[in-house]
Design brief:
The structure is a homodimer.
Chain A lengths: L1 H7 L3 H9 L6 H14 L5 H8 L4 E6 L5 H16 L3 E6 L4 H14 L3 E4 L7 H8 L4 E4 L8 E5 L1 H14 L4 E6 L5 H17 L3 E6 L5 H13 L8 E4 L2 H13 L9 E6 L2 H5 L5 E4 L2 H17 L8 E4 L2 E3 L14
Parallel strand pairs in A: 1-2, 1-3, 3-4, 4-5, 5-11, 6-7, 6-8, 8-9, 9-10
Antiparallel strand pairs in A: 10-12
Helix pairs in contact in A: 1-2, 1-3, 5-13, 8-9, 10-11
Chain A binds a DNA duplex through α2 and α4.
DNA sequence: CGTCTTTTATGAAACGTTTCAAAGGGTGAG
DNA sequence: CTCACCCTTTGAAACGTTTCATAAAAGACG
């Protein structure tokens, strides 16, 4: 900037004014400075700017797993909200790795981002509370939060309830829940919702098949386990904690010669794009992904921009069941 | 930091030494300073650090489309390489939007990132050359580059050739290429490869069905157009520019009652995770995605860390054909 | 033509670090 | 007891901006 000033024969302050409050500078001078900037290929140093200005005009979203399409949709919502507010978005992928997440949080705090959106590896990470206490607003995405943060979630218990109620309604009695690890709050909630549906119906039984991670490979493995059971005891329907699991399960069923939905009905969760394109289009619980991200970012902005007082909100969205071919009414004659 | 110094009754310089060269500081003092840091919840200001130190310890990857699984795999490779080098990774999603890409490039240059990996919206963006000329190393990912940059690509002509050669070998003569827009260099190369295969075989004909974008929806639309043709003239095989298109096409075929591969064989491109989980597991051209990202990042690091002289390399990886159920040898008796 | 007001430009301070030359304090050798 | 040397610690400069009080220039007015 000093070079620019020299080149345009003005003072440092004037160059800064051209950049930040051009209306204070005369037409002639402004042009001269802009020309100098062009000729020298000057690029503002954001660090210095930030150091002096105090704010970074940057937001961050720490994603749990970039390769899960659910989160990329959420990210689009976040992106749009950030764009609308004129903020840049730093996307970080923790890859479900606690350490990497911690490293990112440290880094982001050091960068003085204006706020952090995060789908954390552990629901209640003390690090997040500490971060918020020190002044960086934090909004938890797709996970419940204590009163210390805003959060945006979808009602997983309701989702589980919808899914299993649908299975019970279509005539299933032996139902498997496939998902895990169970300690993930969400998974627990979906199980609870599933159990609530069974209890309310007063009939049917729920078996939980826990998986190590919610991905296609684990879905396949679960499929193998289910297919291995004698048909008489085998669940006739599976409710999966997400669509990746459901697709894996579906694929394994097809591979092992079990028919979907006749031998095994499947309900997934998330309604990702591929749910519809699956071998048998997948019945799934749909979450308002884009809206989730967008709303989360808006909450964060409100907290970051708001002056002082702020009440943390815990927003809960309602999921919807999308029925497709992977579930179907069992004729009464064929019921167990 | 001043507060920490006061709290620990040492000078500013000592605090800095504790942080950066702890071996210079006596055990006792170091402990005292660390305690003060803990008590005050001090967090380094990265901007100031960077301003003084000159380097940002940050890399950026400007992704063309986060929701395309191809790029998330590439991103994993980039991520790992960045981690290994102790650098943070800034993931940006241009969403195929020229303006957003430009905005990100400006932002990143202002942030003084150590280097930029990018899959650009346009192959030859003068902005990229300018960026590199001003000192920010740029590596082009999955797109060819002029001699001004390093680049990492996969041989798309070879990929197209492999796919169509496979279709010709399995007995197909009327082959459709589904993909677009054609002006994307990659698409052009795949078409060229496909034509090369046809020419070499001296038999068969290739029809190009151009799509507006390479996604599932467009794949479905292409499927509709193909299915609408009279069976006598309809291509018996389709080679799609990517798996999203192929999955859309497959889905539409199934929906319209055409059998895959009997009525329509399909070859996709990218071999994404869902290719295998599709209604009919998809034959696809597999690209070394992870390696692509990792190598790109390594090239970038070499350029960024290297002192001065650097020869730009254009690395080309070879794709592989993965044969699955969506293509099958046509019995000689049934050939046209 | 002087005075007052408005517009435009300037210079210095401040932001929070890192770095480096130099000062201070011990220790051991002579 | 003195000197030299090593280990610690210190203080100040520098990084590249923004901001603000102030100076200079330019108009406006009587």
């Amino acid at each position: 900037m000093k070079d620019v000033a020299a080149h345009a024969r003005v003072s440092l302050g004037t160059v800064s004014n051209v950049l930040n409050r051009p209306e204070l500078v005369s037409e002639r001078t402004r042009k001269r400075v802009l020309t100098a900037i062009g000729e020298l290929g000057f690029v503002r140093n954001e660090s210095a700017r930030q150091l002096r200005g105090g704010s970074s005009r940057t937001l961050a979203y720490v994603v749990l797993d970039t390769s899960n399409p659910f989160f990329t949709d959420v990210a689009r919502g976040v992106q749009d909200a950030a764009d609308a507010a004129g903020l840049a978005l730093f996307l970080c992928n923790s890859g479900e790795d606690r350490e990497r997440q911690a490293a990112y949080l440290d880094l982001l705090e050091q960068q003085r981002v204006e706020g952090v959106l995060i789908t954390p590896v552990d629901a209640a990470d003390p690090r997040l509370t500490a971060l918020a206490r020190r002044g960086t607003p934090v909004v938890i995405v797709d996970r419940g939060a204590g009163p210390a943060h805003c959060s945006v979630t979808v009602d997983d218990m309701l989702g589980g309830d919808l899914a299993v109620t649908h299975l019970l309604d279509t005539g299933h009695r032996r139902i498997a829940f496939v998902g895990g690890p169970r300690m993930i709050g969400q998974v627990g909630d979906r199980i609870a919702g599933a159990e609530r549906a069974v209890d309310r119906a007063g009939t049917g039984e729920l078996t939980v098949l826990e998986t190590a991670r919610p991905n296609v490979a684990e879905g396949r493995r679960a499929g193998e386990r289910l297919a291995g059971l004698p048909a008489a005891h085998r669940p006739t329907a599976a409710f999966c904690a997400n669509d990746l699991l459901a697709l894996g399960l579906l694929q394994q069923m097809v591979r092992l010669g079990l028919r979907v939905p006749d031998d095994m009905a499947i309900v997934g969760y998330d309604d990702i794009e591929f749910a519809e394109a699956a071998a048998v289009p997948l019945t799934s619980v749909s979450q308002p992904r884009y809206l989730l991200g967008r709303t989360a970012a808006e909450l964060l902005l409100a907290e970051a921009r708001g002056d002082g007082a702020h009440d943390h909100e815990q927003l809960v969205f309602a999921p919807e069941l999308v029925v497709r071919a992977s579930t179907r009414l069992i004729p009464v004659s064929r019921r167990a």
